[in-house]
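Q: Here's a chain of 203 amino acids. Please give me its 3D structure as tokens.
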Amino acid sequence: MHDYLADCLKRYPRLAVCEDDIKLLHDTVAVSFKNRGKLLICGNGGSASDSGHIAGELLKSFCLKRKIDSEVQKAVGDEIADNLQGALPAISLPDMVAINTAYANDCDSKYCFAQLVYGLGHAGDTLLCISTSGNAKNVILAAVVAGAMGINVVGLTGATGGELAKHCDVCVMAPESETFKIQELHLPIYHTLCLMLEQTFFA
């Protein structure tokens, strides 16, 4: 079994301070998936792009060949089955352009992600909140709503964790303070998360 976390820490030794929290991040999301829950992801700007990136790595094969459910394979036949890949349910909230723009036009835009969490989330799901400062108001509001609904809240932030860390069950705080440097560390963290999840469910 490949130790993706050890490999990440070897390539990015500064992330050693995050090791335990990355493990907890994986374990929290994995429990949701094992219980037929899903992962909701939100963030702004570069973190919005990261949200879509993470969802993309989970919804299709990343580094391992993923088989689909055997019952589905039988039902759809070999031709279709051969073109499908195992998937883990993940939704990037910033990518929902129509509802986000409609809500921002009709209501207070800082509640956009909170509204989507309320509409899509269920107890036992996990919400991954990405904010380099940890102080993005719309992300924090989504975390508050998630917590009230029994949804696990996990965070990906910079060194301080900001206000967001107070609302998280697990918060991985990249050891940097400048936005672009934090984002440079977020990518290996979430790639490692996705690799670990893929190994857990498809190895």
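Q: Can you summarize the key feature?
A: The first helix runs from residue 4 to 11.
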